[in-house]
Amino acid sequence: MIYSQLKIIKLTQKPKPHNFYLSGMQNISFIQAQTGLAQKSIQNTLQLISEDCTIPFMARYRKERTGNLDEVQLEQIIKAKTNFEALEKRKESILKSLKEQEVLTEDLAKSIQNTQELTVLEDLYLPFKKKRKTKADSAREQGLEPLAKIIMAQNAVELNSVAKRYISKSINSMEEALEGARHIIAEWIAERIDIRNYIRFQLERFAVLKTKVVKTKKREEKAQKFQDYFKWEESLSKIPSHRFLAIQRAENEGFIKVKILLDEERILEKIAQKIIKNNSETSEEIQLAIKDSYKRLLLPSLSKEALQNAKEKADDAAISVFAKNLKQLLLGSPLGEKRVLAIDPGFRTGCKIVCLNEKGELLHNETIYPHAPKNDQKGAIKKISTLTEAYKIDAIAIGNGTASRETEKLIRRIRFKNDLQVFVVSEAGASIYSASSIAREEFPNYDATVRGSVSIGRRLQDPLAELVKIDAKSIGVGQYQHDVDQTKLKNELDRVVESCVNAVGVNINTASKSLLSYVSGIGEKLAENILDYRKKNGAFKNRNEIKKVTRLGGKAFQQSAGFLRIKNAENPLDDSAVHPEQYLVVEKIARDEKKTISELIGNKILLQKIDLQKYCTSIIGFPTLKDIITELEKPGLDIREETKVFTFNQNIRTIEDLHEGQLLPGIVNNITNFGCFVDIGIKESGLIHVSNLADEFVSDVNAHIHLQQQIIVEVLSVDIPRKRIQLKLYKK
User: Fold this and answer.
1) What tens digit of pLDDT does each residue of 388-398 get?
2) 107, 139: one domain
3) Which residues contact residue 236 at a Cβ distance below 8 angstroms, ignoring those fewer than 6 apart?
4) Rounded Cα distance, 458 and 361, in Å
5) Does the pLDDT at position 64 exceed 50?
6) For the chain, percent of residues with pLDDT exceeding 70
7) DSSP helix/strand/coil, 317
8) DSSP string of 544-602?
9) Minimum mean pLDDT among 30-34, 129-133, 192-196, 357-361: which range?
10) 600 occurs within a structural domain
């Protein structure tokens, strides 16, 4: 293609945009290749997506159409669909550019249209891509391309004599002419797809990432946290995501320089085998061009590509860990509709106290000063005792920040008239919420300290309902979340929140705008309209009434109704995950069994005897009917575990109290690919490395432990100067 005259296609019509659904089976094949899912499932899912169906809705209420795909598989289809559309859009852009340059041949157009990989597509476009003026461009302007072609033909005799013919006003010598020709040859070599792919393979298999400290910044205080990477070498293919991201951050902050190493001698020899045909006069020039091409063009470009690929993989791994952690945190155990006294502990500024009713509404707030410098423990104990009785408190929530242990110890000294449960609650992100517009909207007449205390109390009542108000990145359950692709991270975390909210279901009469906005088919504006309707008309009495909400049309009702719950509704199915479009089949089952719907609900023995095949139709099949029966057995069952009371070792207050061999209770507060961090009741969290999680090899930390899990750990080592604690999961 490079050396021959190009046959130009005269395109008289403008290229038509590639519509995803009009591009035949190509899109289906592309998605199938990426996901491995059945063709029919993909086709039906794409059709549902075109009808504005959400992932939670499809996974729960369209199992017959999707082939019983779960949310993860549906997400895979959507991602593959996005990738296909991006590829098609890029093809259109490239074809348009090539047409404008008048270099679009039939073969090239066919190759572009048939490719299914973005990398291959970019390689095809590379020779024609508009770029900054290169050394090869300058050589061409000097008329040296014919000389480059003569050298590449590899049959020239007396090459020096041939090169002398190209001496001109701009070329002073034979050596300059040969050098210019080599620049052109180097560019040709760098554009060869087979050579690029060979080096990509070498990078994928054998590349070594090497770091070197920037000496001028070595002694900076901030640099010390990266000292492990001042001199580091590791296989690029084997480097864990957390280490790659740490190295990248160190490089971005200017403390180290990163280089990619390959076996240069072997690669140059392999390229030569692909290009040099004989041992003629031209072979030495080509050998020089090969080396120049590799060092100046191929290695820098493809190393950058390899690092970008490694970054993408590291991002995906980190985002996956964050998403798993977030899901576990959101689905944390709720105390439920109980009255809570919440405390945001502090020393000098005191402990902020709020009393909340069963719905999380603020009843009372004030500040006590039990700790230094005021040390008014007697007054604090009296005040807490009075408040718990006055507001009929069921449980106490204590934030786990500054003065948490001291406050917990104080609370446990109090002899309450009623048996109150005491919980230590994570404060992560509470300060973000307290200063947010959502918090100001909820509590316009209170300051941030009161809002923060309310958030702590509500987290105990219902972690999901409260945590959805906070930007997920602020909750602190990930690794290097600020270094990964922020758009990708946001999309994944939003998907996790949406999945959790819809898996649990939402009480439409008590839910906040933040919680409602994540319900399938609702969004922020409709959530606001639901709250306006509730304010004007009182609580919703049945699901049909939801249709009266301004701008909540048929599609929004279809997508959301099954996930919205109405307690004590006229129809008991309104407080279940049974969708209104399925009510008729439930009514038919009840009639056939000569029972009312209320008598049918919870009658497990009767429900398990029902022959579901009798009720299968073209719309409602066995998977959906099975879901209906499961829901009727325990309608509105919360999938989350019950809250358990937990107490830290009261003798451990600081890192100085730790010693090797101690067994301590702890709560998992973060999970990474290299292990998990555990709160043992002091300022510093301890690390259980993957090697100390189990006796066998651990490939997935989440398979062995989950966020907020209450565990027993053994102290392996304590590094007081560096404030590092190594732990081991203790198993009886």
Assistant:
1) 999 999 999 99
2) no
3) 203, 207, 208, 209, 260, 306, 307, 310
4) 9
5) yes
6) 96
7) helix
8) GGGGGSTT--HHHHHHHGGGEE-TT-SSGGGGSS--GGGHHHHHHHHHHTT--HHHHTT
9) 129-133
10) yes
Evaluate whether residue 608 is within a structural domain: yes
Mark whether 36 and 101 lie in a shared domain: yes
- Mark whether 179 and 279 lie in a shared domain: yes
Q: What is the mean pLDDT of residues 581-605?
A: 95
- Total domains in the fold of the chain: 5
Residues 139 and 228 in one domain: yes
Give the domain extent around 704: 655-729
The sheet with strand 208-213 has its strands ordered as: 231-235, 208-213, 256-261
pLDDT at 13 over 70: no
> H/E element holding 727?
strand 724-729
Mean pLDDT of 32-56: 96
Q: Where does a domain end: 461, 478, 493?
A: 461
Q: How far is CA 540 from CA 71, 374, 507, 575, in A?
A: 29, 49, 10, 12
Residue 518 to residue 494: CA distance in whole angstroms = 8
Which CATH number do you get for residue 360?
Answer: 3.30.420.140
Q: What CATH number is attached to the domain comprising 275? A: 1.10.3500.10
In terms of domains, do 186 and 316 share one? yes
Long-range contacts of 263-272 (CB under 8 A, 24+ apart): 263/202, 263/206, 264/294, 264/295, 267/198, 267/199, 267/202, 267/294, 268/294, 270/198, 271/189, 271/195, 271/198
513-525 mean pLDDT: 96
CB-CB contact of 454 with 354 (8 Å): yes
Q: What is the pTM of this model?
A: 0.85
The angle subtended at Cα 35 by Cα 32 and Cα 40, nearest 5°, is 45
Tell me the C-alpha to C-alpha distance, in Å, between residue 551 and each of 509, 528, 701.
18, 11, 45
Cβ partners under 8 Å of residue 461, min gap 6:
334, 335, 336, 337, 338, 340, 356, 360
Q: What is the CATH number of the domain that holds 710?
A: 2.40.50.140
* Residue at 505 is within a domain: no
CB 412 within 8 A of CB 401: no
Compute, in degrees rounded to 10, the torsion defined by CA atoms 296, 299, 304, 306. 170
